[in-house]
Every structure is written in structure tokens, then in C-alpha cells.
Design a protein that fits this description.
CATH superfamily of the largest domain: Zn peptidases
CATH topology of the largest domain: Aminopeptidase
Radius of gyration: 23 Å
Number of strands: 19
Largest sheet: 6 strands, mixed
Mean pLDDT: 97
Strand order of the largest sheet: 1-2-7-3-8-16
Order of helices and strands: HHEEEEEHEEHEEEHEEHEEHEHEEEHE
Number of helices: 9
Strand content: 15-25%
Shape: elongated
Number of domains: 2
Low-confidence stretches: none
CATH class of the largest domain: Alpha Beta
Structural class: alpha+beta
Oligomer: single chain
């Protein structure tokens, strides 16, 4: 356990460096790192780590090395230029526990720009908030973790445990960035991911399955529409059936020890729809990209079978689809849910850090989204904590992170690193 004097020095150092932290965060948010365009963000992280003296490992992701690992989901885009960046701190004498600090730099598309109050990649600070795509999810958390390490150094201290600072991509679609770190051999006694969690600790989180419905119809001129088969309306028939499956899974969730406290933990979302070629032609095709959640302990393969069965049953009760069945393709996440278990020691260290900053005990969060913690916990039994700042409009318009919560979560992160890894006076 660190002393009150050490804790105070670290907390004061976070305050002293907070303006610089925000400036770096703004620079990071200003990079439009949507899928396939994350390179400049990884360049920036690599430079920041080298400036601080970390050993930097920067490599291109090779999917052929990952496809047989637990948690891998199909990647449909070209990630041949996709990279993972890891900066490693090695203490002179490794007497403390080791730690992975990880953030993702990929962000979801901004959507129509005219629906943002300020440009999504021109971050704005006003009314105690930073606005911009990725400001909340999760670039502020990544930079916050880096400045948490800076605060320890500025306080005249150095950790006594090995630390891997990891910046990954593909968190929003497959998770292969995090998976690549494990394939590369990075391990630690614990993992900490500063996703925005409203300053609560993620206790249990869903898994996610992505799939695509490929529906084919029979095209005719619209004046004789009754003699054709509309692929778009047929796709809606399948969506309605999957909404019923969503309801059934939510009923099943009532027996889960964590998710039974939530009204609707399983969310099905038809997120992208494309179809047809001409407004006056009955559409011959329709593709719908979908996402549905599953709970910890649920088998991905068994849930896939239920999705296939649901779609097949709906098709049998459709005039056209009964003889022209749709195709289901797996198009991204095939991810299990994750519960934080076997984590008494890192949780105790974090509880002390949290109490020193916030006062009291940290609240648990039952999370209806997923994070990269699952790979470390499920694949290698590395206890993986997820805690971060407050904000809003993630994946929406006018996304923001609350700066007071960011300051406090950075302090808690810094104290947790000191508690977990141990610290000594820098030479």
C-alpha cells in the first residue's frame, strides 16, 4: 500500500499536468481514425511513448496468425495496414506486479456532419466538456492512462512492476487488435482498460455477434409489383422474427445473476440496410447488417444456431422466402460475454485508489456493451478491470467526455498503478 504522502504527490501531479493532458487529448481526437484510417493515431502514440523512454513495439496485424484464437471474428475489410503499438516500461528491479494498460484508437463513423453542433474531428472544450468523435469512446481514457504514468514520474517516483501500454485498433468491430497483443506474447498480472464507464467498475459485460442477412427477391416493373417479390419487405419480415428472438433472450436473461437487474440487457440492432437498384423496380436484393448481444456463459456457437433457426423458421412462413431462403453471413464480432472474476487483489488495489479520490466504494456496472477485457480474462485468466470517465453520445452526435470526471478518473488510474505495481523513489 502506498502512503498518504505518495498518494497526495501523485494526485497533485495529475492536477499540474491536466492542461497538457487535455491538449494532447485534443490532438488525438482531431485525428479521424475510423476503420482503416487508424495509422496516424498509432504514429502519435508511438511518438508519445518514445518521448517517454518506453520500448516501442509497432507491428502490422497478420490475421492468419489470429484466426484460430479464441474470440476471433471474421474481418471483412482490408487490415493489411492495421497496426498495434505497445510501449513497455521495465523497472530496474521487478519486485512489483505487472500491468497491461490498454486503449483503442479506432472510432465509429461520424454520420452526417450537418447533424453535429461542432465538427466531430475539431474537438471543442466548453462548459466543462470536450466534444468530438472519440473524445469519450475512448481517446480521453487512453491519453489519461498515459498521463497517469506521467504523474507518477512527475511525483519523483517510478513503478516497480513491468507495464505494457497498448494502443489497439478494431475494438469497435472485431477486437483483433487486442487479440494480436496476446498472440505477440504480451502478458501481465492484471489488465486495466479506461473505457468510459461513468466512473463505475464493469462487473459483467455482454458478448456480441455480428451477422448479415442476404435476401434475394424477384424483380419486376413496379406497375406489376404483385407478380414480383420485394427483397426489402422480405428482409423486414426476418427483422421482425429476430426481434422476437431478442425478446426470448431477454426473458432468459432474467436468471442471470448480474443482468437480471436490467430491464432489457439484450439488444438487437439492424444497423445497416442496403437494397434495390431503382425506385420503379421491385428490389431484387437486400442486405441487412445486424448486431445482437449475448450474456456471459452463453455459447457463441449455440447462439449462432439459434439465429440460423430463427431466420429459417421465418423464411418458411413467407410466400417467397420459403422457396428462396435467405443467407446468413457472420460479419464481425463473435464475442463471448465476460465477468470479472478471480480479481480480489487488483480490485482491492483499485478500491484503495478510488476511495482516495472519490471517497467511498466504487459502484459496479453491468455493461450492455463489450470491451477488450474479455480477451485477457477469458483467454489467459488475466483479471481485467474496466473503469473510466463519464460522458455521453458515444456512437451518436455531439459526443463528449466530462472533464471533471476525466481528471478524477486519471487520478484514480495513477493511484491504482502505484498501488498495484508498487513505486519507489526515482534515482
Amino acid at each position: 500500500m502506498i502512503t498518504n504522502d505518495i498518494a497526495r504527490r501523485i494526485v497533485d501531479a495529475v492536477d499540474d499536468g491536466f492542461d497538457r493532458q487535455l491538449a494532447t487529448t485534443c490532438d488525438f481526437v482531431a485525428i479521424p481514425s475510423t476503420r482503416g484510417a487508424e495509422g496516424p493515431c498509432q504514429d502519435m502514440i508511438g511518438d508519445l511513448l518514445r518521448e517517454r523512454g518506453y520500448e516501442v513495439d509497432d507491428w502490422h496485424i497478420d490475421l492468419s496468425e489470429l484466426k484460430d484464437l479464441r474470440g476471433y471474428g471474421p474481418v471483412e475489410t482490408d487490415v493489411s495496414k492495421g497496426r498495434t503499438v505497445v510501449g513497455t516500461y521495465r523497472p530496474p528491479s521487478s519486485v512489483g506486479k505487472s500491468l497491461i494498460l490498454q486503449g483503442h484508437c479506432d472510432v465509429v463513423p461520424a454520420g452526417p456532419l450537418d447533424m453535429w453542433e461542432t465538427p466531430p474531428f475539431s474537438p471543442v472544450i466548453k462548459d466543462g466538456k470536450m466534444y468530438g468523435r472519440g473524445a469519450c469512446d475512448m481517446k480521453s481514457g487512453t491519453i489519461g492512462a498515459l498521463y497517469a504514468l506521467d504523474a507518477i514520474s512527475a511525483a519523483g517516483l517510478k513503478p516497480t512492476g513491468r507495464i505494457h501500454f497498448q494502443s489497439v485498433i478494431e475494438e469497435e468491430s472485431t477486437g483483433v487488435g487486442a487479440l494480436s497483443t496476446l498472440q505477440r506474447g504480451y502478458r501481465a498480472d492484471a489488465c486495466f482498460i479506461p473505457e468510459p464507464t461513468d466512473c463505475k467498475m464493469v462487473r459483467s459485460q455482454v458478448g456480441v455477434i455480428w451477422f448479415r442477412l442476404k435476401v434475394r427477391g424477384f424483380p419486376v416493373h413496379v406497375f406489376e409489383a404483385g407478380s414480383g417479390a420485394n427483397a426489402i419487405t422480405a428482409a423486414y419480415h426476418l427483422i421482425q422474427a429476430l426481434e422476437q428472438l431478442e425478446s426470448e433472450w431477454n426473458e432468459r436473461a432474467r436468471s442471470d445473476r448480474y443482468f437480471k437487474t436490467l430491464q432489457h440487457p439484450i439488444n438487437f440492432n439492424p444497423g445497416i440496410i442496403k437494397g434495390g437498384d431503382w425506385a420503379s423496380s421491385v428490389p431484387a436484393w437486400c442486405d441487412v447488417d445486424c448486431r445482437i448481444a449475448i450474456l456471459p456463459g452463453w455459447s457463441v456457437s449455440e447462439c449462432q444456431k439459434e439465429i440460423l433457426s430463427c431466420v429459417a423458421a421465418a423464411a418458411r412462413h413467407h410466400r417467397f422466402l420459403s422457396n428462396n431462403p435467405p443467407i446468413v453471413e457472420w460479419s464481425g464480432f463473435l464475442s463471448e460475454g465476460y465477468e470479472l472474476t478471480n480479481a480480489a487483489e487488483p480490485e482491492a488495489a483499485f478500491d484503495r485508489a478510488y476511495n482516495a479520490v472519490f471517497g467511498g466504494a466504487v459502484e459496479d456496472l453491468v455493461f450492455t456493451a463489450l470491451t477488450d477485457t474479455r480477451f485477457y480474462g477469458l483467454n489467459y485468466d488475466i483479471p481485467s478491470l474496466c473503469f473510466g470517465a463519464s460522458g455521453a453520445a458515444m456512437h451518436g452526435f455531439n459526443e463528449y467526455v466530462d472533464l471533471d470526471s476525466l481528471r478524477k478518473s486519471t487520478k484514480a488510474t495513477a493511484l491504482f498503478i502505484a498501488e498495484w505495481c508498487g513505486v519507489e523513489t526515482a534515482a
